[in-house]
Amino acid sequence: MAVIALISDIHGNIDAFRAVVEAIRSDGDIAEIVCLGDTIGYCPGGNEVIELLASLEEEYAIRYNLGSHDGAALELYQFIDMTNDTDAETLRSAGLESEEAVVTDYFDAENRRFVPVRPDARDAMMWTLEHLSDGARGFLRERLKPVIEIAPGIISVHGSPRDTACEYVRDARFARKCIESPKMDGIRLCFVGHTHLPVVWRMKRGEIAEVAGRRVCLSPPRPDFSERVQFERARELAIANVGSVGQPRDRDPRACHARFSAETSVFEHVRTAYDVEAAASRIRAAGFSERLAERLFRGA
Prior knowledge:
Elements: E1 3-7, H1 14-25, E2 30-35, H2 46-56, E3 61-65, H3 68-73, E4 78-80, H4 85-93, H5 99-107, E5 114-116, H6 119-131, H7 134-143, E6 144-145, E7 148-151, E8 154-156, H8 172-180, E9 189-192, E10 200-204, E11 208-211, E12 214-217, E13 222-224, E14 228-230, E15 236-241, E16 255-261, E17 266-272, H9 276-285, H10 290-298
Parallel strand pairs: 1-2, 2-3, 3-6, 4-5, 8-9, 9-15
Antiparallel strand pairs: 1-16, 7-8, 10-13, 10-15, 11-12, 14-17, 16-17
Helix pairs in contact: 9-10
C-alpha cells in the first residue's frame, strides 16, 4: 500500500528534519513525499535542509509547495516589520502611506509586494537572504508550486486554497470560508500547513448547500485533533493541516509530519522527538531572537 509522507514548515530546523527523515525512511510504506512549503526561516539551517531534500530525491518522488517564507527568500515579496523605521520608509517609498494601504497590498495575493511579520521573523529572513546559497535558491525556484494535485479531488497548498502562500486556516471561520470558496470546486480534501497546528476541519456533504450557484456551509466545520483520521471519501469535505516539522505550535515540542493513503483515505499525524537543545543552540549562535530558541522547547 503506497503512502505519501506530508511534511511542512521545516523552517531551517535541520535537527528536527533529520529526525523526521529517519522516521520516513523507517516507514516501509512511504513511496512519495509532498513538502507543503516553508523550508527556510526561523532557524539557520536552510542550506542544510535543502541539501537533505535534494539527496532524498534519489530515494523518493518529492513535490513541493511554495510557502510564505519561501516566497520571501525568492524575493517574490518582502517581509516587513511595521515598527521598523527602515521598513516604514520602504513602504512610504512604495506609495503605501497608511496601514490600510499595507493591508490592501497584503490581501492582493496576485500582486502582493509586502507581508507584515513580527520583528524576529523579519530579522531571520534578512539573515536567510544573506546566507542562503545560490544553489539552494535555484533548487527552490525550480520546484515550488502554489498547488499540487495529489490525486483526483485531493490537493495540497501551503496556506489555504484561497491564498496558497499566506492565508492562515486558524479556526472554523477560516475553514468555512475555504470550503465555500470556488477554489474548492471539485476538491474533497485539501492539505495545508502554515499555522503549524495539526488539525483536520471536516464537514459532511449534507451540511453544504448550493445557493445562487455558490457553495454555502449550513454549519461550521468541525475540528478533529485525532492522531488518525479515516476520511469518508464520498460523504465529506475536509481541510487537513499536516503540522510542522521544525516549529510545532501545539504545545508539543516534537517534530510533526503526516502520512496519507489515497487508497484507504487514512490520514495520520506522526510525532518524532529530536535534539531541541541543538536546534536552539544553532539559533542563538546565528544571533536570532532568543524567543525563536525558547519557543522550540515549549512547542508554542
